[in-house]
Amino acid sequence: MEYLGENLLHGIACTMEKFTSSESELAKYIIENPDEISQLSINQIAKKIHISPATITRFCQKISFSGFNEFKHELKRYIDLKNKPTVSSDIKEIDYFSNLYQNHLEIIETTFRKMTYLDIQQAVSLLTDAKKVHVYGIGNSGIAAQEFKWKFFRIGIQVESITDPHQAVMDAALCSDSSLIIGISVSGNTKEVIDAIKMAKKQGASILVITSDKTSELSKLADLSLLVMGKSSMHMGQNISPTLPLFLLFDLLYTELVAKDYVNRVQIRDKTLRALKDIR
Q1: How far apart are alpha carbons 18 and 77 in whole angstroms?
Q2: What is the pTM assigned to this prediction?
Q3: Could you give the maximum distance between any two Cα atoms of the chain, in Å?
Q4: Dihedrals φ, ψ of 233, to 5°?
Q5: What is the pLDDT along the chain (280 residues), one digit of tens a residue?
Q6: Cα–Cα dist 197/219, whole Å
Q7: What DSSP string runs through 101-145?
Q8: What is the rounded distance in angstroms from the CA atom of residue 134 to the CA atom of residue 160?
Q9: DSSP secondary-structure letter at 174?
Q10: Distances (CA, A) of 122 to 117, 119, 125, 141, 250
């Protein structure tokens, strides 16, 4: 688990039953004296409570930190939060929201830094040249596949999204060299998507892959791979929607596609929007 700011001491208290007697003694001292502990070294704490530095390290690891330094850093964050006013007009002043904000910025900046204009152009060419576009994704990537369908269908791209593994393989068996198959897997190791892409490749379809790992098995099957940023290395990564980097990439492709055929794409988009208004 990950303890964030004001949840840190509560997390320690909830883990008491897992501690040895020495670790429990340390835990109680931390809960009662967080300000003092945040200022001491591991050796100073060991001497003060009459336990070994190794016991302190094991305690930190039991509550999912790599060691004492990481725990102490989080404890200092707790102290900072405790001393801040509880009401703020700017949520970026709240410690964990600030970290989340920085992670979102990192996703945007990394995507724009890593993605080349040539990548975007080649992907748009594949989209416009294909008679039919098939998008495969499972789980959260399936949600992204559906978003891709509705986003690009509105501007005249014939897209089908498939999120069922069996249907994806059957669909792949029926595609042709005029088809574009898009496989979405952030890890690049989703077996169901890989199996369907392999089948589509046998039929001569063009393959576009969206993943975070250019060395993955899925990426190696592609005619073109578009890389998104993975979230696993981020401090607040588990709090970010896994579809966010994918949706950002979709917006880049969408913007380029509209820019290259502006009048036609906008007319199609307006036509589909009017159709939706007419049925209300």
Answers
A1: 24
A2: 0.67
A3: 77
A4: -85, -5
A5: 344 445 678 778 878 888 999 999 999 999 999 889 989 999 999 999 999 999 999 998 888 888 899 899 888 888 877 776 555 567 777 777 887 888 888 888 888 888 899 999 999 999 999 999 999 999 999 999 999 999 999 999 999 999 999 999 999 999 999 999 999 999 999 999 999 999 999 999 999 999 988 999 999 999 999 999 875 555 445 667 788 889 999 999 999 999 999 999 999 999 988 888 877 6
A6: 10
A7: HHHHHHHHHHHHHH--HHHHHHHHHHHHH-SEEEEE--THHHHHH
A8: 5
A9: T
A10: 9, 5, 5, 22, 14
The tokens for 203 are: 């039929």
Distance CA 249, CA 73 (A): 34
Tokens of 178: 């005029």
Residues in the chain: 280
DSSP string, 191-225: HHHHHHHHHHHHTT-EEEEEES-TTSHHHHT-SEE
